[in-house]
Write a structure and sequence with these properties.
Blueprint: H1 3-33, H2 47-66, H3 78-101, H4 110-143, E1 149-154, H5 158-169, E2 176-183, H6 191-195, E3 198-201, H7 205-211, E4 216-219, H8 227-236, E5 242-245, H9 249-254, E6 268-270, H10 277-297, H11 299-312, E7 318-324, E8 330-336, H12 360-367, H13 375-380, E9 385-387, H14 394-403, E10 416-418, H15 420-424, H16 431-446, H17 450-465
Helix pairs in contact: 1-2, 1-4, 2-3, 3-4, 11-12, 14-16
Length: 470
């Protein structure tokens, strides 16, 4: 079963479960709580019943979406999913009870307790039933290789061989299809070298990940080769791959090793995203609401600036430029034009304090960072976030990578209109200054949260009010 098809069935199952649970709750109320008023066929003549059929399922689907339920279903643990479902449905049942059911007329106060108990029990039972069935089907697909992740093994040492032999002996790879391995130093012949294709060496890693459409990378290195790990992680930083590291005893004792399945292998796991799914969805809603609000609130200013630019110098009002987004994917950033149209006729160049390419109006809008406001459109399009590392052009990104290879880690998140680096350091006029500012972007990534975003936004607003831009 394809990932999208499984997700679709998951959503359908949740929708049908919510419909059935609402029907069970309604019938319970009519038969038990309002028995003297019950008539056969009454639910199909009650507007409240039909209103619930349209409203309640959408509430449940929204809650499940926000909690990150509908992503990466093949990697879900059934036990963890059951626990998470129990908590989410408890929250949803409380919201629905106080929002839709608390004002119902009852004979006894205990009828409210019964109503809530039936709502929660029916919704939980029916939802879990559908989900467990679908997750069992997903696990069966992994065992039979109807679905699997293209996997690359880095290293062919004894630990790699033991891992590969364990998967082979059990007749399944827990969703792994090994496309081959990359050779490191000093490997001896074993089951990996004899049964898997050697695809190259470490220098070929990025090319192979792209060509083979790799989704999982398993790293098997010896303790004395830990210096290679940083290089590997940097090369994979802008790739949408799930990294698993076979731990040594030090890693196990340090508490960095995770197990998602009792029968599976223990790994140090590095997902391709920094935020958990519910955090990512919450940040996305924060971006959407904030961007719409910002565009509406600043619309008079946007119109005024557009007219000033139009009549002050020759050229378009808006300026688009290719920048690198999440995972290094290019997109067109939108800004108010602050330079003359021939500003880069001699090639890309960073701005300076007294840059003659900047127009008089451009100098003012850059000082107060008004030129950045159209980027809220990029946020609405899903290309940027309100807060995130600064989006750079490939020309300058390549230069930064030469100086600081760990810069590629910023590609794990969406770039932002503003950033901790912009707040703490400001605009950079040289590549060296861009590298210094990078430190703050890495710190932001390690501490990403809505609270951190609010702090950065507050400091950005103060920067704008005091005209500290350039």
């Amino acid at each position: 079963m394809h990932k999208r098809r499984l997700t679709g069935w998951y959503i359908v199952s949740d929708y049908l479960s919510s419909l059935a649970a609402w029907y069970c709750l309604y019938m319970f109320r009519k038969v038990v709580i309002e028995a003297e008023h019950f008539q056969v066929g009454l639910p199909f003549q009650d507007n409240q019943f039909f209103a619930g059929l349209f409203i309640v399922p959408e509430i449940w689907l929204l809650l499940h979406y926000i909690s990150g339920t509908y992503t990466d279903l093949y990697r879900k643990s059934r036990l963890q999913e059951a626990i998470k479902t129990t908590v989410v449905i408890l929250v949803g049942a409380i919201l629905i009870f106080f929002g839709l059911l608390l004002d119902d007329k009852v004979r006894r106060f205990t009828d409210y307790y019964l109503t809530f108990a039936v709502l929660y029990a029916a919704q939980l039972t029916l939802t879990l039933l559908g989900r467990i069935l679908l997750l069992n089907r997903a696990k069966a697909n992994l065992r039979t290789k109807r679905f699997a992740y293209n996997t690359l093994l880095i290293g062919a040492n004894q630990r790699a061989a033991e891992l590969y032999e364990e998967f082979s002996a059990k007749g399944n790879g827990f969703g792994y299809i090994f496309c081959g391995y990359l050779r490191l130093n000093g490997e001896t012949p074993n089951k990996v070298t004899s049964e898997l294709q050697q695809l190259g060496t470490l220098s070929d890693l990025e090319r192979i990940v792209d060509e083979q459409h790799i989704e999982e990378v398993i790293i098997a290195i010896e303790s004395h080769e830990h210096h290679l790990l940083n290089d590997i992680l940097i090369m994979l930083a802008d790739k949408k791959v799930y990294i698993r590291i076979i731990p040594d005893m030090y890693d196990i004792l340090s508490g960095t090793t995770k197990m998602n399945s009792i029968i599976g292998e223990a790994f140090i796991e590095i997902p391709p995203v920094v935020l958990s799914e519910w955090q990512r969805i919450t940040k996305r809603w924060f971006d959407l609401i904030g961007s719409v609000g910002a565009l509406i609130f600043t619309s008079p200013l946007l119109l005024y600036v557009a007219l000033r630019i139009k009549f002050s110098s020759k050229g378009p009002v808006f300026y688009t430029q290719e920048r690198l987004g999440q995972y290094g994917d290019p997109f067109q950033i939108i800004k108010f034009r602050s330079m003359y149209t021939d500003a880069e006729q001699h090639g890309p160049r960073l701005t300076t304090d007294d840059d003659p390419r900047i127009t008089p109006v451009g100098r003012w809008i850059r000082k107060y960072r008004v030129d950045e406001l159209p980027q809220f459109i990029n946020v609405l399009k899903g290309e940027m976030s309100i807060v995130g590392p600064r989006a750079e052009r490939r020309f300058f990104a390549d230069q930064i990578i030469q100086e600081a290879p760990y810069y590629r880690h910023v590609f794990k998140v969406q770039p932002g209109i503003t950033s901790l680096g912009m707040v703490k350091y400001g605009y950079a006029s040289t590549v060296e200054e861009m590298v210094k500012r990078l430190k703050y972007d890495i710190i932001y990534m390690e501490n990403m949260s809505i609270l951190m975003d609010l702090k950065v936004i507050i400091y950005t607003v103060l920067t704008v009010l005091y005209g500290r831009g350039k």
